[in-house]
Amino acid sequence: MKTMSKFTLTGLAAGVALAALTTSTAQAQEEWTMTTTWPDNLDLIQIDRHWVELVNTLAGDELTINFRAGGTLMPGTEVFDATETGSIQAAGDWPGYWAGLSPAFSPLATTTSLFNAVDYINWIHEWGGWELYQEVYGEYNMVYLPYAALNNESGFMGGTPIESLADLEGKRLRLSGRDQGRVLEKLGGSQVTLAGGEVYQAIERGVIDAGEFSTPGVDYKAGFSEVAEYWSVPGWHQSASVFGVMINKDAWDALSEETQEKLKIAAEATMTWSLAWSERESTEATLKFQEDGVEINQLPDEDLERIQEITNEVILQGACDDPMHAKVYHSMVSYLEHYANWRDISAPYNMSRTMDNLPDLDELEACL
Question: Per-residue pLDDT averaged across 30-41, rounded?
């Protein structure tokens, strides 16, 4: 009887312990709602989905993310406020959409004729970029995980050929970005701001002379070859782009450090995948644009040099508008100068452009 009692008590204790563990696990389980700025018909949503799938695989015991396509919960323009206030826990974005709140968001999203995708990856992970994303988004009660770096965008597509900078005079072009618009204005064109889903019709109806949205892969799937006869390359206005996920700070803090680390690992893995995915898609789309009869016009080297000069002017002129804006660009240019010590002697096998004309670091520092 005594032996039976011991087993009974041991079994009872194990049952209580298991129940407590189950209760603890249930309490630790988090469920998030996440949306994005991208609707289902824009291929950029694949990046958001890739990260969500990785998180649900890596951290499914502690966190489940219920993902909704852009526009199904709220307009894409409202996801920033919804994440900041905690109405939703997370949202995929492109930082440049929030440049009206702070100009510092603009270089966190893209640069004109400066970074390529490898530069962004280097800078984010090893040259202080990560901390700057946290600093800028942190002002709005958010943590930010950059999880995509795509190389330069398509360039301008439309019914009018753009073969040189002279052809930009008086042209109405759709492009995103605060600094990008300023460069275009100095080149004689005017910026038209349109949502990505409106570019196709704007080209078709002649509302704009030419437009762009994203990489060739994304633009082809958006149907641009159906309405554009000409394509001006390269996409100097966005020499690379970063996308990521905004996470409400309170929701982030509710996670264990182990779960937070899994979300970061998923972001790093998605960033590597995103570049290869985008470059493959862009290659195949370029062939399809040509097969559909779209004529490609490449700007000459002297025009690209002029764009670089104007870009430097715009960066320096805008830097003192906002100390944080200057701080981001100062960090970027510092990286380019430092990296050049190895980058330039490793040409032609280097992973970034060899550049000898950069914004002046001392002038940027004066704006800090």
Answer: 96
φ and ψ at residue 193, rounded to 5 degrees: -95, 120
Mean per-residue pLDDT for 101-126? 96
Split at pLDDT 50, 70, 90, the class of 27 is very low
Higher pLDDT residue, 21 or 142?
142
Q: Residue 251, Cβ neighbours under 10 Å: how many?
A: 19
For the sheet containing 210-211, what is the strand order?
A: 190-192, 172-174, 210-211, 156-158, 230-233, 295-298
C-beta neighbour count of 314 within 10 angstroms: 21
C-alpha to C-alpha distance for 165 and 306, rounded to whole angstroms: 9
- How many angstroms from the chain centroid is the CA of residue 151? 10
Average of per-residue pLDDT across 229-248: 97
Q: Give the 3-state secondary structure of 255-298.
A: CCHHHHHHHHHHHHHHHHHHHHHHHHHHHHHHHHHHHCCCEEEE
State the residue for tokens 């493959």.
Answer: 280
Element containing residue 86 per DSSP (H, E): none
- Triad 195, 198, 202: Cα angle to 5°: 125
Distance CA 207, CA 172 (A): 8
Mean pLDDT, the chain, integer: 91
Q: Which pTM does this prediction carry?
A: 0.90
Contact (Cβ atoms closer than 8 angstroms) between residue 92 and residue 38? yes
pLDDT digits (tens, 9 = 90+) for 289-303: 999 999 999 999 999
CA–CA dist 43, 51 (Å, integer) = 14
Which stretches within the chain are classed as H helix?
2-28, 45-58, 79-85, 105-109, 117-126, 129-138, 178-186, 199-204, 216-221, 249-253, 257-291, 301-319, 323-343, 361-366
What's the N-to-C CA distance of the chain in angstroms? 80
**Scanning the structure block, which residue is given the tokens 């759709």?**
174
Supply the pLDDT for residue 28. 57
- Cβ atoms of 150 and 277 within 8 Å: the answer is no
Contact between residue 104 and residue 44 where contact means Cβ atoms under 8 Å apart: no
Cis omega before residue 107 (within 30°)? no
